[in-house]
Amino acid sequence: MRRHLRRVAPVLGCLLAGSLLLFLAVSAARWQDALASGDARYRSAPDGRLWDPGRLAVGSISKSALGIDDDLAFRHAVQSFRLSHPEQPANSNPALVVYRNEATVELTDIERHAKDPERRSTAANLLGVLSYSDAVYDYVHRTRLLANAAQRFQQAIAFEPDNEDAKFNLELTLGLSRGMRLAENGGGANPAPGGKGSKGAGAGDPGSGY
Question: Residue 51, SS3?
Fold first, then answer.
């Protein structure tokens, strides 16, 4: 009996290994399709459950083996950011507060721990946009929020010196800060939130300072 088991064991091992490889192959194909289709749907409809491969590829084992945890985390963070609608005041809709909090947590994790400097730069830039957006609508804490936004944009540029969005946003933020100081000293007009001065980091389109 033992001799028979010794003969069968290698065969069973090969079958198990083959089954695992087949599972990973199916998972890889499903995840690739899920990422591609999710990216396509995100462009027109960012809400909803995206990047879902279905039951044949679920589980942390398959994701870890395929090395796509970081890809999914980045996509979900950007999705939360977009759904937070930074061009609108957060207190206008409780759902925006939820998405903004989620985006802040997820983007902060990427900014601190991602291995890709480009993604860290993008995350820092988007965090700066959230601070800028809050500053536009928050009179009381505007100075602190603008300072935080400027710091985030500077971090983004440090991670990726060619990040033109972060450079544009930093220039816009510093300009608004200078305008506030002039207004406080009686040397200029107060940039009213919601007016022409609020256009840019918190209201622009991706690729133009967003």
Answer: coil
Look up residue 114 and give its two tokens: 């991602």
Q: Which residue ranges make up each domain of the chain? A: 1-39, 69-210
> Which stretch, 15-24, 83-92, 102-111, has highest mean pLDDT?
102-111
pTM of this prediction?
A: 0.67
Name, in order, each residue with C-beta under 8 angstroms of 33's C-beta and a sequence gap of 6 or more: 53
Q: If you average pLDDT over every residue of the chain, what do you get?
A: 73
How far, in Å, CA of 181 to CA of 86, rounded? 24
The confidence score (pLDDT) of residue 154 equals 97
Residue 25 burial by Cβ neighbours in a 10 Å radius (0-12, 13-18, 19+): exposed
Reported residue count of the chain is 210
Please list, residue by residue across 37-67, b when 16 or more beta carbons sit within 10 angstroms of its beta carbon and e when fewer do: ebeeebeeeeeeebbebeeebeeeebbeebe
| pLDDT above 50 (res 192) | no
How high is the pLDDT of residue 164? 96
Q: Closest Cα partner for 201 from 63, 87, 57?
A: 87
Plot region of 54 (φ>0 → left; ψ -120 to 50 → alpha; else → beta):
left
